[in-house]
TrEMBL record:
This is GMP synthase (Glutamine-hydrolyzing). Transmembrane segments: none annotated. Its EC number is 6.3.5.2. Residues 53-184 form the Glutamine amidotransferase domain. The keyword Ubl conjugation does not apply. It comes from the Bacteria. It is an enzyme of class 6 (ligase). Keywords: Ligase. The lineage of its organism: Bacteria, Pseudomonadati, Pseudomonadota, Alphaproteobacteria, Hyphomicrobiales. Residues 241-264 are annotated as: Disordered. One of its GO terms (molecular function) is GMP synthase (glutamine-hydrolyzing) activity. Pfam families: GATase. PROSITE patterns: GATASE_TYPE_1.
């Protein structure tokens, strides 16, 4: 994409939770779509903007902390999500980011009632509403031991066997997914090494299954992630612009000048 086209788009605000965290594949896709990335880490002291007027939207990624933690930055992030919600700006929460959105909207975040986790590759099933939007991957990658209640007013888009709430939409522009579509191969290797102590948890898969599963399931997940980001940040923006234009036209008084039919 030409530099001029890239510069016409406002950046996407990227919120990460660790010093070495990365936007990974999601960042690569957004840059290919022509967006610049404004990366901030509130856990390390970065501030969050009081408005998203200078941004095209925001994505909050995952992290080892819980949406129930009392750390100041966790509380601040959850409260701050009212900004994209009030301004009707595109928001995507991935794993922790989805749980934070659920908390902001009044939903609960909690471990599984039998202590089960999802760490590895697990089946995903789109709901009727999800199927109406797009085709979803049959298997997705997880690394979590808490889930969220579906907030009141939210629409469930995809479900799973152990944690039933896997993807949802609130309004037109706020989205949450419990699974990870952002991992590059290098990121998955790091997660498998540094998270190996969690593979003994109930329901978790061993590291080899993570890497073997990537060979089988990553291509459909990557393809879906590209289409999903396009839906949120490009097609959604086009639809909002069209709606705004239609609203403006409806509010304009009818002209008293006779309309001339164009020549055929």
């Amino acid at each position: 994409m030409p530099r001029e086209a890239r510069d016409t788009k406002k950046p996407i605000l990227i919120i990460l939770h660790q010093e070495r965290s990365s936007a990974g594949r999601v960042g690569h896709i957004l840059e290919q779509m022509g967006f610049r990335l404004d990366i901030r880490r509130p856990a390390l002291g970065d501030d969050l903007p009081p408005t998203l007027a200078a941004h095209s939207g925001t994505i909050v990624f995952g992290g080892p902390m819980s949406a129930n933690d009392e750390e100041e930055f966790v509380r601040r992030e959850i409260d701050w999500l009212s900004v994209p919600l009030k301004e009707n700006k595109p928001y995507l929460g991935i794993c922790l980011g989805a749980q934070m959105l659920a908390r902001n909207l009044g939903g609960a975040v909690a471990p599984h009632h039998e202590g089960m986790t999802e760490i590895g590759w697990y089946p995903l099933k789109a709901t009727k509403a999800g199927k109406a939007l797009m085709e979803w991957p049959a298997m997705v990658y997880h690394f979590h031991r808490e889930g969220f209640d579906l907030p009141r007013g939210a629409e469930l888009l995809a479900t799973g066997d152990t944690y039933p709430n896997q993807a949802f939409r609130y309004g037109e522009n706020a989205w949450g997914i419990q699974f990870h579509g952002e991992l590059t191969r290098a990121m998955m290797h790091r997660w498998v090494v540094h998270g190996a102590h969690r593979f003994v948890l109930p329901g978790a898969q061993m590291g080899k299954a993570h890497l073997d599963g990537r060979m089988l399931h990553d291509h459909p997940l990557r393809t879906w992630m590209e289409k999903f980001l396009d839906l949120i940040f490009l097609r959604g923006a086009d639809n909002r612009s069209a709606s705004a234009g239609e609203s403006t036209r409806k509010s304009e008084p009818e002209s008293t000048v006779p309309r001339v039919q164009p020549p055929h």
